[in-house]
Amino acid sequence: MKSKLIILLSLFAIYACTTKEAGREGEDTVARIAVNPAAEGFNLEGSDPKAIAWADAVMKAMGGREQWDNLRYLAWNFFGVRDLVWDKKEGRVRIDFPRDSAVYLANINTMTGKVQKNGEEVTHPDSLTKYLQRAQGIWINDSYWLVMPFKLKDSGVTLKYLRQDTMLTGTQAEVLELTFENVGNTPGNKYEVFIDPADSLVKQWAYFKEASQDSASAIWPWDNYAQYNGVLLSGDRSDNRGPKNVRVYDQLPVEVFESFDEPLLE
């Protein structure tokens, strides 16, 4: 217990030294951590204090932890192929996937729900379990493309500060590395996140299929931010990939998550 306390205090001291670089000059280190606590399971000891400072600066620039936590319902289209509605508070997810002739109504916290396939409800327990797992996998992937900047201190994440670098737009950026342990469907992936120091917003991300790779498998922009109930989100991006038609709601009828009929969302 004593050794852990010493490590934590040391991290606080180093963390404070990086405050100016992360655009948070003059704020109290402990207070910043309190307003943006890491998720349980975040690798604090293995992560860089400088990277954590940048992660907190990103959260603040995106609208702040309180605004993010208070955001209830998110809806978006993913790559033009499926539509999702997510109840952040309760973990309910609706996925309309025409190409698979499927509608998923799942709770990704409890792994319960129901599924319609080819116009018929799936009733066999084993098949239903398989399709609910499929729904969870879709949600993990598609939501990450929308809300990744809010998940820099997520469970299973190790966060490292790498370097200053130039983005494809020619703008200078601070680059963080995210690696994962025992989380998600592809824990062997690695990401590099490019943060614009002018506004502390993520502007580009690089995907590495394997963490051991030296060069990225793909590099994508993270741009075209818009404000939704006090929170900044990136949709309808300049490369025409990822989330489109992003919407947020304070209230939605329960039928959105319980009826296979297509919901009428404004």
What does this structure look like?
The protein is of the alpha+beta class and 266 residues long. The protein has two domains: 153 residues, no CATH class; 90 residues. 24% of the residues lie in helices and 32% in strands. It has five helices and 14 strands. The strands form three sheets. Strands 6-5-4-3-2-1-14 form a seven-stranded antiparallel beta sheet, with helices on one face. The protein has a five-stranded antiparallel beta sheet with strand order 7-8-9-10-11, covered by helices on one side. Strand 9 and strand 10 form a beta hairpin. Helix 1 packs across helix 3. The relative contact order is 0.15.
Q: Could you name the key traits of this structure?
A:
266 residues; alpha+beta; 2 domains; seven-stranded antiparallel sheet; five-stranded antiparallel sheet; 14 strands; globular; disordered N terminus
Per-chain topology:
Blueprint (H helix, E strand, L loop, with lengths): L1 H16 L11 H7 L13 H13 L3 H6 L2 E6 L3 E6 L4 E6 L4 E6 L4 E6 L2 E2 L3 H23 L9 E10 L5 E9 L9 E7 L4 E8 L9 E4 L3 E4 L2 E4 L8 E7 L17
Antiparallel strand pairs: 1-2, 1-14, 2-3, 3-4, 4-5, 5-6, 7-8, 8-9, 9-10, 10-11, 12-13
Helix pairs in contact: 1-3
Strand content: 25-35%
Fraction of residues in helix: 10-25%
| Strand numbers in spatial order across the main sheet | 6-5-4-3-2-1-14
Oligomer kind: single chain
Shape summary: globular
Rg, nearest Å: 19 Å
Mean pLDDT: 89
Q: Which secondary-structure class do the elements indicate?
A: alpha+beta
Number of domains: 2
Number-wise, the strands total 14
Q: Spell out the helices and strands N to C.
A: HHHHEEEEEEHEEEEEEEE
Distance between the termini: 53 Å
**Major β-sheet profile:** 7 strands, antiparallel
User: What is the overall number of helices?
Assistant: 5
Low-confidence regions: 1-32
